[in-house]
Design brief:
The complex is a heterotrimer of chains A (245), B (68) and C (232).
Chain A: H1 2-8, H2 11-43, H3 57-84, H4 87-119, H5 127-148, H6 152-184, H7 199-231, H8 236-244
Helix pairs in contact in A: 2-7, 3-4, 3-6, 3-7, 4-5, 4-6, 4-7, 5-6
Chain B: H1 6-11, H2 16-59
Chain C: H1 10-26, H2 29-50, H3 54-77, H4 82-86, H5 89-95, H6 100-114, H7 116-129, H8 137-162, H9 169-195, H10 200-231
Helix pairs in contact in C: 1-6, 2-3, 2-7, 3-7, 3-8, 3-9, 6-7, 6-10, 7-8, 8-9, 8-10, 9-10
Classes of the chains: A mainly alpha (245), B mainly alpha (68), C mainly alpha (232).
Chain lengths: 245, 68, 232
């Protein structure tokens, strides 16, 4: 266990390891995305109530799921950075925040676009969209806090504290928004029949969720590599790599 | 395959605009989030190699096998 | 802390910190009155903006009162640690041989007593001005008592995180508004339920639970955040 953590914390080792990983992940992610989109857009049958507009689910739900999971990844990295003071965890956290924010934004925009044909309005204060909006603010807070600190080590630790507080709060936020919505829900826009999703629609959805997870991992790794390259530009291991290439 | 023709795919029974708009608003930011760090890595890498060459040419008054 | 004096017990240190902070807050009554005045004035804006129709105002009064209370607490939490940070007493606090979380809690408690607590006490006045039905008043006060406790503690985390940043005010609101969402929802729902004769107790219990939870957890976060701010 400790040797793994130590290895992960060593920039040269991580740089080589992530290089191999990225080389595999990039084609896998692209093919998964293309397959999932093809299946969801062209092969799956339309929903009997919403028609073809439900096909937005194949990007909206994966983006929302991975955005939420991304916050936990970020907070976990933050906890590691606070407890063990591992530099690599700081870099992970910093790399994950903007990716999560982009995914949340995608979930919001696609949710709004989906709302127009379904509810007749671009924006409806639906429980899921509202919690996504709050998650978006949480991500923006982490990104903004990181930018506000001059000292980047302190910035990472401050963001770690913030994201841990956010992690404790997220289940409460989701639950409270859920209750809030069910209390105020007008009868005309109830949409609770989607729990029984047919397998012909479910499989492409699962595929897309997997694809988005791969995409998240890929972009976080790429961001980390870019960050490492710049942070260690003066170090000998990197010079050797660059010289040997 | 659910759709019969390409125009049916485009139209999606009147929902095509929304579906394709949503997919475009997903594809463009996602492509950017992948491309931007790749581009940054490439730039940093190029900078590093240029630096290496500079260092090599500065020190190689006697030995030029350091490059490459 | 001079070495010849015997060390205080943790409790005594807490009390001393509390009294010290309370005194410095009491020294400037205007600072204590400001959030209340802000509350008053913003509440006045709503009838001006929405029209004086009593029924409509009464219907949205719980929401107005709670949102304004949230804004008032946001406004004051920006200043929570600012003066202590500037005059260096925060650094001394961090060096003291007591857990920083406990000492900080004393400060936050004093801060809450002069802001959130007072706000909850005077809130019925503004509620009556907005035409909130009388059966909602006890719940309003109770919900604001628990709720401002949460708001102050969460605000203290944000304040501790941003105290070393020069223009931290706007950033602070970005950090803590999303964290305050559950408090707002539970608080307004409790008052709205009380007005229609429903069941406010369960919502008040949720708020009390949130308050206890934040009381247990946020001091650790505040302490950690203050150490980060002092290091940067």
């Amino acid at each position: 266990m400790w040797t793994i953590i130590h290895k992960m914390g060593s920039p040269p080792w991580f740089f080589r390891f992530s290089g191999v990983l990225v080389r595999w992940l990039l084609p896998i992610t692209i093919s998964l995305l293309v397959m999932g989109a093809f299946w969801g857009l062209l092969v799956a049958p339309p929903d009997f109530r919403q028609g073809n507009s439900y096909r937005i689910i194949y990007i909206h739900v994966p983006a929302a799921v991975v955005a939420l999971a991304g916050y936990y990844v970020m907070a976990l990295a933050g906890a590691v950075s606070l407890i063990w003071r591992i530099k690599m965890a700081d870099i992970t956290m910093r790399a994950a925040a903007p990716v999560g924010a982009v995914l949340t934004a995608i979930a919001l925009v696609t949710g709004a676009i989906w709302g127009k044909p379904t509810w007749g309005a671009w924006w409806v204060w639906d429980a899921r969209i509202t919690s996504m909006l709050i998650l978006f603010f949480l991500y923006l807070g982490v990104v903004a806090l990181f930018e506000a600190y001059e000292n980047k080590t302190a910035a990472a630790r401050a963001c770690a504290v913030l994201s841990l507080v956010g992690t404790v709060n997220i289940p409460i936020i989701y639950k409270s928004v859920d209750w809030w919505y069910s209390l105020h829900q007008p009868a005309s826009i109830k949409f609770t029949g989607e729990s029984a999703i047919d397998s012909s629609m479910l499989y492409p959805l699962l595929l897309m969720i997997l694809a988005f997870y791969c995409l998240f991992a890929l972009t976080v790794l790429l961001n980390m590599r870019a960050e490492l390259l710049w942070a260690h530009r003066e170090s000998s291991w990197l010079k050797q790599l660059a010289g040997g290439a | 395959m659910y759709f019969e023709s390409l125009s049916a795919v485009w139209h999606m029974d009147g929902h095509g605009f929304y579906v394709w708009l949503a997919y475009a608003f997903t594809a463009i930011p996602l492509a950017l989030t992948v491309w931007l760090p790749i581009n940054r890595i490439r730039q940093h890498w190029r900078w590093l190699q240029a630096e290496q060459r500079r260092a090599a040419s500065a020190s190689s008054g006697s030995a030029n096998e350091a490059g490459g | 802390m001079s070495p010849d004096r015997p060390l205080l017990s943790l409790q005594a240190a807490f009390t001393r910190q509390f009294v010290r902070h309370m005194r410095s807050l009491m020294a400037s009554p205007a600072d204590v009155a400001n959030p209340l005045l802000f509350f008053f004035m913003v509440v006045t804006l709503f009838p001006l903006g929405l029209g004086p129709d009593p029924e409509r105002l009464a219907a949205i009064a719980p929401g107005i009162l709670w949102v304004v209370a949230l804004l008032a607490s946001l406004m004051v939490s920006a200043k929570l640690f600012a003066s202590d940070f500037e005059d260096g007493s925060l650094e001394q606090l961090a060096l003291a041989p007591y857990p920083l979380a406990v000492l900080v809690l004393a400060e936050v408690a004093a801060h809450w007593l002069t802001t959130g607590f007072l706000l909850a006490l005077v809130s019925p006045l503004f509620a009556i001005m907005l035409g909130l039905p009388e059966q909602g008043l006890p719940t309003l006060v109770a919900s604001l008592l628990f709720g401002t406790m949460c708001l102050t503690l969460i605000g203290a985390v944000g304040s501790a995180l941003t105290v070393s940043i020069r223009r931290g005010g706007l950033l602070l609101s970005l950090l803590i508004i999303p964290l305050n969402v559950p408090v707002l929802i539970f608080g307004t729902t409790a008052v709205a339920e009380a007005v229609i004769g429903g069941n406010p107790e369960s919502w008040l219990a949720l708020l009390a639970g949130l308050a206890l939870g934040s009381l247990a957890l946020t001091p650790l976060a505040i302490g950690a955040a203050l150490r980060v701010s002092l290091d940067s």
